[in-house]
Design brief:
Blueprint: H1 2-13, H2 17-26, E1 32-38, E2 41-53, E3 56-66, H3 75-90, E4 93-96, H4 103-108, E5 112-122, E6 133-136, H5 139-149, E7 156-157, H6 160-172, E8 176-182, E9 185-194, E10 197-203, H7 207-212, H8 214-221, E11 225-231, E12 239-244
Parallel strand pairs: 3-4, 10-11
Antiparallel strand pairs: 1-2, 2-3, 2-7, 4-12, 5-11, 5-12, 6-8, 8-9, 9-10
Helix pairs in contact: 1-2, 5-6
Length: 270
């Protein structure tokens, strides 16, 4: 079945064979998969990646795809229905990160916008005063620092194996997962470089500190600006990152490590 699922992935999302193989070998065995068959052949699939939101089990609906020639037949809706029933039996939260343009589809299925985030563009001001000390992030340390910072209500928690995959996936796609050592403190820097822009898609660096050391960050990464994404301070502030099917989100929350899959950040949804 793996070859057939890999073809669905390639046709729906256009990722390289190396990337797809990486998922199938490293992440596929740890997730719940819902596969739609036509005449015994897989034509649609959804992968549910386990995580936690507070004390509650949760599943991230990832790489939900239907082969192009079988789309608009209600197959995706049937797959989602099966996933929703599974999560209901488990009393688990089910959430997705829809790509731009299909949010209404999920809203019509009863999903609610969630995981609000803000984006800040920072341009370096002043001179470089210090040389940054930056190291590669190991999965265990990344998990520990992440859990300490993103611990509010509505924040998604990933175990160390999930974090290890996410860090490797990020590097495979040309990004980085670093730890900044600054005056006795450690900060996570997870992102990538796009042209002259440094994108920090997940970081424990406070916005004020990012602004203060922006000359140093830009010099280290060879960037002219920093685009920083961080949790909104309250619900409805900023933009929703995803949506939940059976979870009354009254706080902004945070997902992080969504496994975008490409340097361009292409979402894994139809």
């Amino acid at each position: 079945m793996i070859p057939a699922l890999s073809r669905i992935w390639e046709e729906c999302f256009g990722d390289s064979s190396d990337y797809i193989r990486f998922f199938m070998e490293q992440r596929f065995p740890t997730c719940q998969s819902f596969v739609w068959l036509e005449q015994g052949e897989p034509v649609g699939v959804a992968y549910l990646l386990p995580c936690m939101i507070g004390e509650r089990q949760a599943y991230y609906g990832y790489a939900i795809g239907v082969k192009p020639e079988f789309q608009r037949r209600g197959i995706c809706a049937e797959i989602l229905h099966c996933a929703e029933q599974f999560c209901e039996r488990k009393r688990a939260v089910f959430f997705v990160v829809p790509r731009s343009g299909v949010e209404k589809y999920y809203e019509n299925r009863g999903f609610c916008a969630a995981f609000y985030y803000c984006k800040r563009e920072i341009y370096p001001k002043g001179e470089v005063r210090e040389i940054l000390k930056v190291s590669e992030a190991a999965p265990a340390e990344y998990t520990l620092l992440r859990e300490h910072f993103f611990q509010g209500e509505g924040c998604v928690s990933w175990n160390v194996n999930a974090v290890e995959y996410a860090l490797e996936e990020q590097r495979l796609c040309g990004g980085f997962a670093h730890i900044l050592h600054w005056h006795g403190q450690k900060y996570l820097l997870f992102g990538d470089k796009r042209g002259k822009s440094l994108y920090l898609r997940e970081t424990t660096l406070p916005v004020a500190l990012a602004e203060r050391i922006s000359p140093e960050l830009c010099k280290y990464y060879g960037a002219a600006e920093i685009i920083l994404e961080y949790p909104a301070s309250r619900c409805k502030e900023g933009e929703p990152r995803g949506c939940c099917w059976n979870f009354d989100v009254r706080v902004a929350g945070w997902i992080g490590l969504e496994l975008a899959g490409t340097k361009e950040g292409g979402e894994k949804h139809v």
